[in-house]
Amino acid sequence: MHPDATYLARQYYTALDHHGYDMLRNILEPGFVQHRGDMALSGREEFVEFMRDDRPQKDTRHVIERYIQSKSDDEIVVRGHLEDRDGDELFVFLDRFRARDGKLSELKTFVKSSPN
Asked: What stretches pass through the bilayer (predicted)?
């Protein structure tokens, strides 16, 4: 039995917040893709490399407000916000993950700037 999308999404945020890039790599399938309003990343290695080396702020924490699991366990929507190391809110996000065969296969991210 494969882990469901909720479990994988929780692992995803833990990996990012704790700089666990090997853990991140292990939960993504090789063809993983992310779409965001300002960019798209194709392939697990490109995504992990961006998160490890190129994202603007790495000392952040994802604060999850809600997980909304699909009935089929292969899709989840996550609502939350990202905080910097001082606890200041950077932006609000809505992530839609798709999972296949126990790995995350796709992520679509929507962001809204915080009013701060």
From this structure: none
CATH number attached to the domain at 5-111: 3.10.450.50
pTM of the model: 0.92
Domain boundaries, the chain: 5-111
Q: Do 89 and 81 touch, CB atoms closer than 8 A?
A: yes
Q: pLDDT tens digits, residue range 80-115?
A: 999 999 999 999 999 999 999 999 999 999 999 866
Query: Tokens 């890039």 belong to which residue?
Result: 21
Gap between the Cα atoms of 48 and 103, Å rounded: 14
In angstroms, the CA 15 to CA 34 distance is: 16
Q: Which residue has the tokens 């999972």?
A: 99
Buried b (16+ CB within 10 A) or exposed e, 5-17: bbbbbbbbbebbb
The model's pLDDT over 66-83, given as tens digits with 9 standing for 90+, comes to 999 888 878 999 999 999
